[in-house]
Each structure stands twice: as structure tokens, then as C-alpha cells.
Design a protein that fits this description.
Low-confidence stretches: none
Shape: globular
Number of strands: 2
Largest sheet: 2 strands, antiparallel
Mean pLDDT: 92
Distance between the termini: 32 Å
Strand content: under 5%
Number of helices: 6
InterPro entries: CHP03086 (IPR017520), DinB/YfiT-like (IPR034660), Maleyloyr_isom (IPR017517), MDMPI_metal-binding (IPR024344)
Order of helices and strands: HHHEEHHH
Helix content: 40-55%
Protein name: TIGR03086 family metal-binding protein
Strand order of the largest sheet: 1-2
Organism: Plantactinospora solaniradicis
Amino acid sequence: MADLPDSQLAARAAAPLVEIIRNIKPDQLDAPTPCAEYNVRELLNHLLFWGPSLEGAGRKEVVPAPAASDTEMDLTGGDWAADLEVQVGRTAEAWSRPTAWQGTTRVVGPTELPAPMIGGMVVCEMVTHGWDLAQATGQQPSWDDDLLAFVHEEVTRTAEQGRQMGAYGPEVPVSASSSTLDRALGLMGRDPDWRR
């Protein structure tokens, strides 16, 4: 794979996600997504809820999550698309600094974790949930090959841990000849052939 600088990863993951967000129609908010526990509205809410914490981790500033969970709060009132576009941009900007990927950082709570691990998670979340939203709303996003190679490598390394934490579902078998994105999705427990 081409060796992308860490500082470029989040911005390259974020740009297609922002386009997907801009093209979601109001009548699609209750549509199911490949992320089984969320419909479109709930997944947008999840991104809005965790965005400040992921941004803070890139800045090495802990942003406490609200007391309620992302399933108890609805942040999709008002101009949610503009709010989420701004938040995705802020998160990408925070992780565009080389120092974001150095040392350790925290998302919530006192546990220090390797910053490259959290940065990788941020990039994978943008791509995966972008794909979820695109599939649910009939869009065809495109991430560049080098970024997808990074995502696949990252998921290959963390898939088992992700399953233990409940972040990934059981692996979905995907042909070795499938696209890099499809192979990464399968490792995360997504069915690349999912259709609404």
C-alpha cells in the first residue's frame, strides 16, 4: 500500500462522508442501515454524539460525553446536516495535526490509549458509517485506494479486539478477490452486498 501520512487520513476519509451527509433526504431518516442497531437518524445521532469526543482526542483534550447515551439523546433536531458537516470537519482537522497521532490520548474516561489506535478508529468510523449511510440512502461514495488500504490494514489488525468490545459483528465471509472496501467491511461484520 502507498504510505499515506497519518495527518492526511482523516481529511481523506471525511470528504466523501460530508458529501453523503449533504445528500440524505428528510424522508430517508427512518430507513434501515447495514449497522443493524441504527436506522439513518440514529446513526446520524451517533456521529453527532461522539464527534466532540473524537475531535477532543485528536487535540489531546478530553471532552466528556453527555450523561445520557447516544440512544437516549436526539441531536438530529434543527439543521442536523450542517451541524454534522461542521463536526466532521472539526474532527478531521484535529486529526490532521501530526501531534494528534503521537503518544497517547483519551476518548472518554481516564484510560490512556495509543493515539495511532484512536486515530485509526476515527478514520475507520468515518469510512464505515459513511458506507452505512450511503447504502441506506442509495448513494455511491468513493474513497481513494490508498485510504481504503489503510482501513483494511487497520481493521485486519483490530478486528478481533473490536468483536470482543462489541464494536464489530461476526465476520462476514468475503471473497479474496473482492474490493479492499468489501474485505474490510466483511472483517467488521458488515455484509458488503447489503441492500435496503
